[in-house]
Amino acid sequence: MTISAKLMRSTTDFSDFISACIAAIGNDYVLTAEPEKASFLTDQRRRFTGQAIAVVKPGSTAEVAAIVRLCNQFNVPIVPQGGNTGLVLGSVPDRSGNAIVLSLGRLNRVRAVDPVNHTMTVEAGCILQNLQEAALAVERLLPLSLAAEGSCTIGGNLATNAGGTAVLRYGNTRELCLGLEVVTAQGEIMEGLRGLRKDNTGYDLRDLFIGAEGTLGIITAAVMKIFPVPKAQLTALVALQTPAQALRLLTLAQGHCGAALTGFELMSDLCLQLVARHMPQLTFPFSARHPHYVLLELSDSESEAHASTMLESLLASALENKICQDAVLAISAAQSKTLWRWRESISSAQAREGKNIKHDVSLPISRIAEFITVTDALLQASFPECRNVTFGHLGDGNLHYNVSPAIGYSEELFLSHQSSINLVVHDSVHQFGGSISAEHGIGALKREELLRYKSAVEIGLMKTIKQALDPHNLMNPGKVI
After folding, report:
1. Matching Gene3D superfamilies, A to Z (predicted)?
2. Multiple choice CATH, 110-228, 3.30.300.30, 3.30.465.10, 3.10.129.10, 3.30.70.330
3. Which tens digit of pLDDT belongs to each residue from 49-73?
């Protein structure tokens, strides 16, 4: 950055910049008062609060482009934000106060639904749950599903390449997206909203922006895949002794059910103990406790009877081969929803229990059981005050290997060990051939750790792409790299 560019970041220039933004999108959508900005500046876990010149809320792609061009003119960094549900400080500004938050919440239209092409074209600010409902209205399924779906936005899902509970069958957000509309760092509009399964016309620019966390450009709209609604969805909760048994059950389930196996979620007993403690309205499904549980779901395109036969055969075989100790099969949609509440309430229950250290990691599926055994032992050896709250999407190799302090242990003292605990966990992940971020992204929280685990060649290529697309480093600076 030149000296003259640095001098542009003065209070006077900010005032001129604010006036230009108001002229571009209207006074009501440029928030400068501290109370108006407050909810946009603090991360979802309430651990960090940044500062911003303003929160700017454009209402169209053209207005997003106009704001980006003004940011180039005045040399103002941009922090794109959707539902602000991220966990790695990717969607909040730093404390310098030199950036704007560009909120995409007003870009919330479903532009088109094509049930024959099995696509829907949607704007980045659409709430994920609303899109699920829009798909169901035409008897189609948008399979992306995660705990924050009532508040996260599809733009944020794309920016972080979100996973969720149905990756095993349908893939993550990248695999569900066919085309993007993007405002570049220069304020130009890349119009790539093509609903094509095959388009081999050069570099796949779409995949550059998905998972880039707003550091290369701003996703404003997308073409998403939708699918026929399954004829039946059946859910079972299975009790097991070890994660190794869960892997045996996964292999058995894939053999019995094939592509019908939609979800396969591993949960330790401590996870369900926390849910039972903080959500006492839920009745524990088993008469006795077990060390581990798997929540599995089948989505069948034939019939409920066909799905029931598959699931009952699977569970009978698992019990006969002593892979599991007990199982509960949901016999209604309400019971299925209740079983899923046990899984989906884990993060909330852990938050109510107190402060914790989160690890969103992925591993080769075959090595997950060994990773848990080894890493649990490493943590207990160095930090005996830890309680491991281990759960996640076993079917696609994604673990939420979270750590809470022992009951009565000082939270402040526990969090003072966060860097050391992260080092133990992430070094173990690396040794097992895994990744330190499976679906939450890098943001600002894991940026320095990325340098430890990515090769110099990979980091160099990422920096080259960043420099080529955002040479002035205005797009979400300080995030990812």
Report:
1. 3.30.465.10, 3.30.70.2190, 3.30.70.2740, Uridine Diphospho-n-acetylenolpyruvylglucosamine Reductase, domain 2, Vanillyl-alcohol Oxidase, Chain A, domain 4
2. 3.30.465.10
3. 999 999 999 999 999 999 999 999 9
Domain 232-347 has CATH 1.10.3720.10: no
**CATH 3.30.43.10 describes domain 9-106:** yes
3-state SS, 127-186, equals: EHHHHHHHHHCCCEECCCCCCCCCCCEHHHHHHHCCCCCCHHHHCCHHHHEEEEEEEECC
Q: What is the dihedral of CA 187, 193, 199, 205, to 10 degrees?
A: 30
* pTM for this entry: 0.92
User: What is d(CA 335, CA 337) in angstroms, rounded to the nearest whole number?
Assistant: 5
What Rg do the C-alpha atoms of the chain give, in angstroms?
23
Nearest to 224 by CA among 158, 300, 163, 160: 158
What integer pLDDT is reported at residue 13 of this predicted model? Answer: 61
Cα separation of 303 and 51, whole Å? 54
Does 318 have pLDDT greater than 90? yes
